[in-house]
Amino acid sequence: MSVVVRAPAKINLQLSVGPLRDDGYHELVSVFHAVSLVDVITAQRGEGVQVSMSGEGSESLATDDGNLVVQAIHALAQHAQIDPHVSIHVEKSIPLAGGMAGGSADAAGTLVACDALWGTGLSREELADIGARLGSDVPFALFGANAIGRGRGEEIMPVLGQGQFHWVFALADEGLSTPAVYRQCDTLRQGEQIRPPEVSDALLHALRQGDANALAAALHNDLQPAAISLRPALRSLLEAGVEYGALAGVVSGSGPTCAFLCRDSAHSIDVAVAMTATGMCRTVKRATGPAPGARVVTPTG
Ligand code: C5P
Q: Of 145, 160, 175, which residue constitutes the final position of a domain?
């Protein structure tokens, strides 16, 4: 039997970075938005733990103990007190080190796949508790849709919304290191009084109304100046997206992927074509959001 799981990428519609905590993480308020750009995780019974990857960026990913998929397998097996026997293949579409939580999506997808394969029958909440120890964005990848993330991002609260939003993503040649971007954010804000972050009411209202123009005006990422200072070309990329008609552009998470909000599907095709023609990014992808969290799509016997 094999289990196939689709796990979504995320963008942060709002990412407000508060003070640095004693544990080295920053206190956050994030409004997460899952999008239809997914990694596909296929799990089968096997001897011991076998992990393979293909697709976007996979050639530079080791499948050793540092890999979040391997960590997720062991974390679930330990929780369920069973010996891990599984063979997992991940077909990646989410960019590596792109600020879209691809590694977290793979970890979330692995938890869901192994839970189904091994019949451990854990709830989403239990999987999220295990996932939170693997990475701050793993719980959101399990729940998907729109949600507020607090703490270091792992405390998830669903947010009501309506309608679909249309996005164009500009992917860069080379990823950015998340810890490096947070460190740069601290450096740029040195000497400033950092207030506890708060959720934007305007953003939540835009989601409730399904209003793309209002959402465009409310997009905000505190890590954007840090990502731009480490990768100055992102500034012109963001400007180009808006020049070519996007309602707004924002760096996704710690970057360097840039997300451009469009009016509708046809408009997103126009923006994607224009962005491709600029030659300013490695590749361009379109997706819609919100998308569901990591879930089994085809259990086969
Ligand atoms: O939790 P995760 O392993 O995804 O975090 C990667 C890195 O991002 C952390 O080691 C930390 O440097 C930074 N981070 C942070 N504050 C957060 C989340 C992540 O500083 N709330």
A: 160
Angle at 50 between CA 45 and CA 51, to 5 degrees: 115
Which of 152, 181, 194 to mutate to test ligand 1, by most ligand atoms within 8 A of the CB atom? 152
pTM here is 0.97
Q: Tell me the mean pLDDT in the region 171-197.
A: 96
CA 214/CA 141 separation, integer angstroms: 25
Cα first-last separation, the chain: 5
Last residue of a domain, one of 138, 160, 182: 160
Q: Are residues 110 and 211 in the same domain?
A: no
Mutate to test the pocket of ligand 1, among 23, 32, 176, 182 (most ligand atoms within 8 A of CB): 182
Residue 270 is assigned to a structural domain of this protein:
yes
pLDDT tens, 240-280? 999 999 999 999 999 999 999 999 999 999 999 999 999 99
Q: How many domains does the chain have?
A: 2
294 is a domain residue:
no
Instruction: Report the separation in Å between the CA atom of 264 and the middle of ligand 1, taken as the mean of its atom positions.
Output: 33
* Residue nearest (by alpha carbon) to ligand 1 atom 20: 25
Give the residue numbers annotated as catalytic, written as ranges. Answer: 10, 137
Rounded average pLDDT over 226-242: 98
Phi/psi of residue 21, nearest 5 degrees: -90, 170
Find out whether 105 and 70 touch, Cβ atoms under 8 Å.
Answer: no
pLDDT tier at 1 (50, 70, 90 boundaries)? confident
CATH number, domain of 179, equals 3.30.70.890
